[in-house]
Amino acid sequence: MPALRPFFSYYGSKWTLVRRGVYPEPRYDAIIEPFAGSAAYSLHNWDLDVILCDRNPSVVGVWRFLIEATAEDILAMPVDYRVAMEELSGAPRDLVGFWLAKGRSRPATAATAWMKAGDRPGSFWGEHVREKIASQVERISHWRVFEGDYRTVENGAATWFVDPPYQGRPGRYYGTYGSAHLDYEALGRWCRSLEGQVVVCEEEGAGWLPFEPAGEVRSIQWRTHREASWVSPSRA
Asked: Using H for helix, E for strand and C for coil, what is the string for the chain?
């Protein structure tokens, strides 16, 4: 089943790494992402039973809007980002905001210089992006999303894709929802307690789980990061 393209750009997204096969294929019919962000792993396995959780209300609101939206709802949104930011509110406005600046943890309120240059119309809000979202939005109507801390997610046999803010410097850029507000030792114990298949993402050098190198990825700021992951034995 071909992967869906990202519905919005988000800081720390793993979409490219998942596409490269860095992480294992799901072994269960259900995927749970307790730090959902832009749901990079689930987009490659969208036909499964997908459950998303995130503490960021903007992220949850956008996903809830997308899950409930029809293609017609998306195509009714203004294609001009300036009009969209004036006329829209709530989650639809946040969706456009995520497309005004790449790789951020919160929706932007103004277009970046990259967007204004107009050199990459497929990377920022406009007709191309609106049509892309409309063409695939109804494929995720069976997904579920809720707002909350990772510890509120009910344990059960599933493929868990755990992609928290990194413990090191990159994790600080999530602000209120970043690394400063996470107890990584507790998170590690929680990951080990999960049933099913567990895939945990981090940056090389983190020690709260026995991470192994997973590859390199270049960020939107053109910096190369060395990724690491921990994959638990599958257990039901």
From this structure: CCCCCCCCCCCCCCHHHHHCCCCCCCCCCEEEECCCCCCHHHHCCCCCEEEEEECCHHHHHHHHHHHHCCHHHHHCCCCCHHHHHHHCCHHHHHHHHHCCCCCCCCCCCCCCHHHHHCCCHHHCCCHHHHHHHHHHHHHHCCCEEEECCHHHCCCCCEEEEECCCCCCHHHHHHHHHCHHHCCHHHHHHHHHHCCEEEEEEEECCCCCCCCEEEEEEECCCCCEEEEEEEECCCEC
- Over residues 3-46, the pLDDT tens digits come to 999 999 887 678 888 999 999 999 999 999 999 999 999 999 99
Domain finish residue from 111, 140, 169: 140
108 and 215 part of one domain: no
- Decide if 32 contacts 194 (C-beta within 8 A): no
171 in the same domain as 223: yes
| pLDDT digits 0-9 by tens, 114-141 | 676 666 766 799 999 999 999 999 999 9
Do 98 and 117 share a domain, yes or no?
yes
Residue 154 is part of a domain; what is its CATH number?
3.40.50.150
162 & 52 share domain = yes
CB atoms closer than 10 angstroms to residue 174: 24
Does pLDDT of 105 surpass 70? Answer: yes
Domain presence at residue 2: no
- 173 & 154 share domain: yes
Tell me which residue range forms the domain holding 134. 67-140
